[in-house]
Amino acid sequence: MTNRLRAGRRLPHRSNPFRMLLSAATWRATGYLAGHLVAGPALFVVTAAALLIAFAFSQFTLTVALTIGSAWAVRCCAQVERGRAVLVDAPIPHAYRTAAEPGLSGHLNARFTDPVLYRDLAYLVLAFPFLLLVDALVLALWLPVLAGAALPLWFWSITNRQTDGSLREGVRLGASDGSGPGIWIDSWPAALLASAVFLVVAMYAAYAVVAAARLNLTVAHVLLRPPRDPLAAAKRVLAGPGPLGPALPEHGPAPATEDAPAEDASGEGDGAPAGRGRLTASGSSTVPPH
Question: What is the model's pTM?
Fold first, then answer.
């Protein structure tokens, strides 16, 4: 499945797990997923509100401007997502339909008959719950693994209250109050050993983070790119040279015109040598005087 996902320009795949962990692609993917957790719900709320406003006011002629504004709000939300792709790839292109007629009715027709608008809605509304779930699950795995790999930097600053009311310094991997199974990390050797284990897990978890970012990018490109023109191949054939184009002469003299008469086989054109006749427009032959 990974091979079918769009490989962003800034999401290269490393075969070495340690290099993958240290690669900038892993941290760009982390920022891309975290950004969707923040921006995704906000854009979903704005888009849903714009849809409700457009539906509520579309029945009234005096509020056509508000309906057009709702379509503009959806477009702005989609543009934010297209611009966010620069974290892991080039910005996603767009091509909206322009109004063919002046006035509010022309703009209304151009906005709501544009298939790009409905593709924007499909990404911002329909695909949002699925992408949000994927991003949340991946980050819920990735961030604790990173925290575990950095245990020697912070385990000594944590104090946990036990079930008997006493306090104990360190970090417990499991229930923090000691009521369930778990491992105490309360010394430097234990912290270093746990950090090494989490580091190995992080090397392979980095692949999941990059794959999730590629999944987000693939869905965004499928829905937010301009739709393909089904006649694009035929238009390229008609625009280029081919059997339907004008035929050019390969050999022989150029055809005669009124301004430039045809050249004869000797290449002397209209100027006939002395002593040789020339045909006139009436078909008779004239001989120049000697």
Answer: 0.73
